[in-house]
Design brief:
The protein is α+β, with helices and mostly antiparallel strands. The chain contains 15 helices and 19 strands. Helix 4 packs across helix 15. The longest helix is centred in the C-terminal third of the chain and has 24 residues.
Length: 393
């Protein structure tokens, strides 16, 4: 995105990429349909970036969701708004958009150099790259770093830049998993039976934070959209205390009195599982989770009164024992402290060096917010370079 802005501003641009081809993480993002952005009003949209919102606001105001949709449309990929408010290309794929984008960049004179892994600067301030042919040095009037965080390192974003910038005195917050799953010490019986099954229409809570949606049981723990929405709070609790309790409401839309009434119906000769399935409309995996949590808490579902069982159904405790590895996280938190950047996204301690995207210290939930901020900060960095070049003559 920075390259496009620069090329249109008249700059001579080369994109150096450590991978053999461009946009590998962009293509990975498209595996689920390429959620480009979100349609909610901009004030609510910006709030998704939490404490980083004030610093990202100018960039996103300058390149908001509507601009990103228009950009996609100009590349022959019109978008639509899904039922959840998320925005997708109508093709529901990343590859047609990426191919069209690369063709346009080529037409605008942008060059690409692949298999060039950036490894810092030489003593003369030139960029250093490791290539299949050995070390290469490149001089530049300005540089944009867009090196990603540390999730999905096989696609290129392995966080190898952290030590390089830290050695230059740039403050970098440790990279941590974001939009990630969490580990749970499931029993073998529960794990073997319910691995891969979704808990639908649930509400998850920790502290005063709640997220609605879906969660998925994994062999090692739990993940899914509603988990990702709380991943920052859950992660910090786990890192602080070594564990965290995630509370699950299995029937969040059913009032307590109505649920008690349903659970007070005669059970007859039904098994407890059948009774819960019919009376409370719980899925097998939800019932399994109830049984798993009751056992872990030293309780018996069968001995609970209807009011106690109703409360338990909408407050199932799950003890999280750890955070899933960053390599498998959707994104990462941490990165270059935003205070290290000037308003043009130049690193204050490194004149002429700009930074954008996920290598900056911000995080956001899934829903189009990750790509939107990456596009917007890339555009802002490109504009910043043009301003710098004009100032330097």
């Amino acid at each position: 995105m920075a390259a496009e802005v620069l090329a249109r501003g008249g700059a001579k641009v080369t994109v150096y990429d450590g991978m053999p081809s461009a946009g590998r993480k962009f293509l990975m993002a498209g595996r689920g349909g390429l959620n480009l952005t979100h349609s909610e009003p901009l004030p609510a949209f910006l709030a998704r970036y939490r404490e980083a919102a004030p610093r990202l606001a100018a960039a996103i105001d300058a390149f908001p969701p509507d601009a990103l949709r228009a950009w996609s449309e100009a590349l022959g990929q019109p978008t639509f708004v899904g039922s959840s408010g998320r925005v997708f290309p109508k093709a529901f794929k990343a590859s047609p958009l990426l191919r069209a984008w690369l063709r346009r960049l080529d037409a605008e004179g942008v060059k690409f150099a692949f298999r060039h892994r950036w490894c810092g600067w030489d003593t003369k301030g030139r960029l250093l790259f490791q290539t299949p042919d050995g070390t290469s040095t490149v001089g530049s009037s300005a540089t944009v770093l867009a090196l990603g965080g540390a999730s999905w390192p096989r696609l290129g974003s392995d966080g190898g830049w952290v030590d390089i910038l830290a050695a230059k005195g740039v403050a970098v917050s440790p990279l941590k998993p974001a939009n990630s799953g969490f580990t749970v010490a499931w029993s073998d019986v529960f794990r073997d039976r319910f691995e891969g099954q979704p808990l639908k229409g649930v509400a998850l809570s920790i502290g005063g934070h709640t997220a609605r949606g879906e969660a998925v049981i994994t062999r090692a723990g739990i993940e899914g959209g509603a988990v990702y929405a709380l991943s920052a709070e859950l992660r910090e609790a786990v890192l602080c205390d070594g564990q965290a309790t995630l509370t699950v409401a299995l029937r969040p839309d059913l009032g307590a009195d109505d649920l008690v009434k349903k659970l007070s119906a005669p059970k007859g000769k039904q098994s407890l599982s059948n009774f819960l399935r019919k009376a409370a409309n719980l899925s097998p995996v939800a019932i399994g989770l109830l049984q798993e949590a009751a056992k872990a808490s030293g309780m018996s579902l069968a001995s609970m009164s209807p009011p106690d069982l109703a409360r338990f159904i909408n407050a199932v405790p799950i003890r999280l024992t750890g955070v899933a590895p960053i390599a498998r996280a959707i994104s990462s938190a941490g990165g270059i402290a935003l205070d290290e950047l000037d308003p043009d996204y130049m690193i204050r301690k490194l004149p002429g060096v700009f930074a954008a995207g996920e290598m900056l210290d911000w995080e956001a939930p899934t829903g189009g917010y990750l790509l939107q901020a990456s596009f917007a900060t890339g555009s802002a960095a490109g504009k910043g370079v043009l301003t710098w070049l004009r100032r330097m003559g």
